[in-house]
Amino acid sequence: MSKKPLIALPLLLTALAVAAWWFWPRLHPREDTARLTLYGNVDIREARLAFNASEHVDRILVQEGDHVRKGQLLAVLHRDLLEAEVARAKAQVEAQRQVLAKLEAGARPEEIDKARADLEAARARARSARDTWRRLERLARKKLASQEEVENARGAAQAAEAQAQAAEAALRLLLAGTRKEDIAAARAELAAREAALRLAESRLAETELHAPAEGVIRDRILEPGDMAGPQTPALTLALLDPVWVRAYLPEPMLGRVRPGMAAAILTDSHPGKRYAGWVGYISPTAEFTPKNVETPELRTRLVYQVRVFACNPREELRLGMPATVEIDLEQPAGTERPPCPGRQ
Asked: Where are the domains of the chain?
């Protein structure tokens, strides 16, 4: 009997054992219970920017894709009428300030000197008129003047005395200064005009549309000449921070994943590059697996939406981009979110 089959049999068994050792883990990989892999899409927040005033658009200063900083001017409405209202309100405020300043300063020394001179002149006229009246009375007793002349002289003397008393009262008013009630009324009028100016300036400011945060212009909805209003968005702004991956956590893993856990994010657009991230939100309510991420293993299971926030310094993660999330389930408790470098 030939010995060759007997020798080949152990060799064959050895080859089969080696092949089984090599292929079995690859055909039946053991589940890695220390690492969780989730699949989802990159998500961001968006703002639909609208004017707070109703007017025709004058200028749109940005284009789709433009990177804008917080506070940057994006668009302007027609504002000629409102600018005129602001100018008028400023003039009214300045005029009332001068009125109040005049009341608070009181009479000038020159005005007081003039009032004193007027009083002396009025007193002199009163003395002259009184002397004329008395002289005519003496003449009338001697039948050298008529009674009518005496009456006229008495009336002129009384009128001159009244004028002197009026001049004296005017001097006392100047010396006493402005009444506090008049000053208070002038101050109140100034405050009302200043409030009207602030209102006009606020309406003028509402003709400008500024970026509420740093971001990228996604849509330019209105164009110059269009009618804008609070209910009509003019631009759509994609906010650059925060950026997260919206994924779905299987219910059996709910007890092993907690907010704050560090994570790694991978995308097909940048193979091999891992973005630092952390679990920022886990939904308190369950839902059925969305169709776009459904797999045979998860088809009938309930899942919880999870947001894994990402460090995105170069703005490489874009809205809707498919992403893979890896979470080390054995990381120690209290792991803090990773520091994110500044944008470049």
From this structure: 30-44+240-328, 47-79+209-235, 85-202
> Which DSSP letter does residue 29 get?
P
Q: What is the pTM of this model?
A: 0.62
Q: Which fold has domain 47-79+209-235?
A: OB fold (Dihydrolipoamide Acetyltransferase, E2P) (2.40.50)
pLDDT tens string, the chain, 344 residues long: the values are 445 555 566 666 666 666 665 555 555 545 556 788 899 899 888 999 999 999 999 999 999 989 999 999 999 999 999 999 999 999 999 999 998 888 877 666 777 667 778 878 888 888 888 888 788 778 777 777 788 877 887 888 888 888 878 877 776 766 666 677 878 888 899 999 999 999 999 999 999 999 999 999 999 999 999 999 999 999 999 988 888 899 988 888 888 888 888 888 998 888 888 988 888 888 888 776 665 554 555 445 678 889 999 888 888 888 888 999 998 888 777 655 666 665 44
Query: How is residue 306 written in tokens?
Result: 């999870």
Reference 232, options 48, 47, 46, 45; nearest CA is 48
3 state SS of 222:
coil
